[in-house]
Amino acid sequence: MQSFVDRLDHPVYVVTVAADEERAGCLVTFASPCSIKPARFMVWLSTLNRTYRVARSAEQLAVHLLGRDQHALAELFGGETGDRVDKFARTAWTPGPGGLPVLDGTLAWFAGRVEAHVDTGDHIGFLLSSVAGETQEPTKRRPLCLSDVVDITAGHPVS
Asked: Which CB contacts under 8 angstroms, 24+ apart, belong to 132-137?
């Protein structure tokens, strides 16, 4: 299966969360729409990641689609750990629904209510239903994809 997965080059996302007076966020490579009716989206967070620890008690998550010109933002949320760095002090954001940190300037974002958690191994799936969101007007900006971020070393341990 790994040779199959190695051929995929899908968009990457930044997921942000606010719960219990904490904020967290991370770069996510496992995410997908998973239902049309009702509309649902699943994001998987590593159980080793601080964002997962904060998200466990959250009612909502925000999912951001980055543009290819936002590699530095991907590096901040993927290459640093919130255990050592306040990522939100290093980037522009605004409070969104339920106090979620919404990153400025992304191609699109949505806030999703957590409908369920799914244990899939070393990542836990968060099943989301959209409660709010925003998409930029169509531009020539292309989404940041997995192949664009292979140079980023994870800020938290992989295993």
From this structure: 132/96, 132/97, 133/108, 133/109, 134/108, 134/109, 134/110, 135/107, 135/108, 136/106, 136/107, 136/108
